[in-house]
Write a structure and sequence with these properties.
By secondary structure, the chain is of the alpha/beta class. 46% of the residues lie in helices and 11% in strands. It contains 19 helices and eight strands. Strands 1, 2, 3, 4, 5, 6, 7 and 8 form an eight-stranded mixed beta sheet that branches. Helix 2 packs parallel to helix 3, helix 6 crosses helix 9 and helix 10 packs across helix 11. The radius of gyration is 23 Å and the shape is globular.
């Protein structure tokens, strides 16, 4: 009996003394120039050509970062249009979640130069150094207080080894591709996209926000990390809500994804939520596709969020999900008891993540098919004067438009190799042989993917 009392007393001390310091680092202000646009604008960084390429990198720790890195490496060696340029030079948009957000952010910052040193500077490093990675008597108090690790340790490591003080202003200065980092707003249960519209609604300045902190928020696994906190500054700026936000918020018949997102943005703007709490982006959308989907659903024209000039010029669009999720795991299915403890937390998180990916991909695929049909109908209904105004070239064919939507995953490789890759743990520390195996898998997955090959052939 005394031992039980002792244990209870010890736990009470641990829980009572533990506290998590997660002071927000975002600053008041506004991201000038983008307040009236859909929060993700396809036309903002598109190149002067007739195709659009968008990539979405899933979560999954270093495994996901290595898989997406392999895809980028293969794209860099794939010719485009039979010219000196490669496919990677035509990438317009990259959306990243958790481990995939690390690759997306670093490539967005350094472009082709990222391919030269990302393996050595991140993939082969132990990004968990300095972090607590196990649940035990020494860490359980922190876990119950909000998270074993606060929101400062991982950003410090990322900044020291990869980003070196870079902020979202560095993305803007370096041009395409446009990069979107995705986290989860765990109060509104919606995606949180680090972009100008979201920050404008909070009267906060996106451009001064550190990339390391955004990536860390995207990778903040529950219990292992405390939520990353973003402060809202209602009334500190004169940035109004974009019209599409109010419309989607008040429309009872709006798509649920769009309505929920608009409601969240409105709460940031109105001051209903003083502090936004963010965790791993995979909790609501491990593919990072919500941003793409919302960008289209929020448009009020057949061509939006493109400009009419871009919509007339466009011939081909490629949108690939780079999916590095693991397979099923655990031996607790062989007994009546379990899962318990850490296994239970992990199983719950994995269930939420896997349930979200199928829904987000289905919604995205349907949205893109509808968009393609709307674009063709709009293009074919243009008058001769409008065709000339929007830059239609001689011999232009309004029907000559096709989107290619695909997914690259371990399960598309041979079964034995897929099983080996799916067994790679979701950690930010992997042995070199596993890193190189996953990189090679990313290259092969792209090279042999029928959707990518069909897109390349259509050019």
């Amino acid at each position: 009996m005394r031992s039980v009392v002792l244990i209870v007393g010890l736990c009470t001390v641990l829980f009572g003394c533990a506290s998590i310091q997660n002071a927000p680092v975002n600053q008041p202000g506004s991201s000038f120039g983008l307040t009236d646009r859909a929060h993700l604008n396809f036309g903002e960084s598109a190149q002067d050509d007739d195709d659009v390429i968008g990539l979405s990198f899933s979560g999954g720790g270093t495994r996901a970062a290595a898989f997406s890195f392999g895809v980028l490496t293969e794209m860099a060696q794939t010719p485009a249009h039979g010219a000196a340029a490669s496919m990677i030079d035509h990438v317009d948009f990259i959306s990243g979640v958790s481990g995939g957000a690390v690759t997306a952010a670093y490539y967005g910052l350094r472009k082709r130069a990222a391919l030269d040193d990302f393996r050595e500077r991140f993939l082969l490093r132990n990004a968990e150094e300095g972090l607590e990675t196990s649940l035990n008597l020494a860490t359980i108090g922190k876990a119950f207080a909000g998270g074993i690790n606060d929101s400062q340790g991982f950003p410090r490591w990322l900044d020291a080894n990869l980003f070196h003080g870079a902020t979202f202003a560095d993305f803007r200065a370096s041009g395409h591709p446009q990069v979107w980092i995705n986290a989860s707003d765990i109060y509104n249960r919606t995606p949180f996209v680090f972009d100008a519209t979201t920050f404008n609604a909070m009267c906060s300045d996106l451009w001064t926000y550190p990339l390391a902190n955004a990536v860390a928020a995207s990778a903040a696994v529950p219990v292992a990390f405390a939520p990353v906190v973003i402060q809202t500054f209602p009334g500190k700026c004169d940035a109004p809500l974009p019209a599409w936000i109010a419309k989607a918020r008040d429309n009872r018949n709006a798509a649920p994804m769009l309505n929920s997102f608009a409601r969240a943005i409105s709460r940031y703007h109105d001051g209903e939520i003083p502090y936004i709490k963010l965790l791993d982006g995979g909790l609501v959308d491990n593919y990072g596709l919500s941003g793409f989907t919302i960008a289209r659903l929020s448009a009020n024209t057949p061509y939006g969020p493109m400009s009419p000039q871009q919509a007339v010029k466009l011939r081909r669009g490629l949108f690939l999900v780079v999916d590095a999720k693991t397979g099923v795991s655990g031996n607790w299915i062989n007994t009546v008891d379990g899962p318990t403890g850490v296994d239970l937390v992990k199983a719950a998180a994995d269930t939420a993540i896997d349930a979200s990916v199928g829904t987000s991909f289905t919604a995205f695929d349907s949205t893109m098919e509808d968009w393609q049909n709307s674009l063709i109908k709009w293009r074919c209904g243009l008058s001769a004067a409008d065709r000339a105004k929007y830059g239609a070239r001689p011999g232009w064919n309004c029907h000559d438009l096709k989107f290619f939507i695909g997914r690259l995953g371990f399960d598309q490789l041979d079964p034995a190799r897929a099983a080996e890759l799916e067994a790679v743990p979701t950690r930010f520390r992997l042995p070199p042989e596993q890193v190189d195996s996953v990189i090679a898998a990313g290259r092969e997955a792209l090279r042999t993917n029928p959707v990518f090959r069909a897109f390349a052939g259509s050019l």
